Amino acid sequence: MTADDVRRALVRISHEIVEKHGGTEGLALVGIERRGVPLAQRLADSIAEHEGVRPPVGSLDITFYRDDLSQVSRAPVLKSSQLPFDLESSTLVIVDDVLYTGRTVRAALDALVDVGRPKAVRLAVLVDRGHRELPIRADHVGKNVPTSRDEVIKVHLREVDGGEDDVVIERRSTNGETDAEAAAGDAE
Q1: pTM of the prediction?
Q2: CA nearest 53: which of 92, 14, 87, 86?
Q3: CATH, residue 95
Q4: Most CB contacts within 10 A, which of 12, 36, 102, 141?
Q5: Is the pLDDT of residue 80 over 60?
């Protein structure tokens, strides 16, 4: 996806969210740290542009709710969750960049339940790549991208990565590196 593709997908998702919710009253967006947060901010900005009301946006750190924490990092970097709205009276839209196995979303749901009980929870993702391991599906999808398990979806956002927005598919080599990581190693 190019930067324009990402922008168009987010505008479409913002319209879908408002339509499904029936307006903006009681609507809140929650981005999963890291790339879900700027995506949630952009969705809120887009909703404000066409509805005149910007829904509140929160962030959710799911680090300690992951079932693969020991595989992710020896010293995970923690960010604080911020939910600046009344959870119990809100319909939340969890926002993330890529939906793959469903384990990240399960961790996000676990983290939310520890804080409170929202009226309803929906899911919006920029890319759905398939290969679910849990019975989780997105309510709003920017793009469905069929992939093989040896491919990796890389989402680049200007807020997190600098540069231009884009989404690329990289193939994982036999040693577990992606094409870009292998090329970087060759260049050293």
Answers
A1: 0.88
A2: 14
A3: 3.40.50.2020
A4: 36
A5: yes
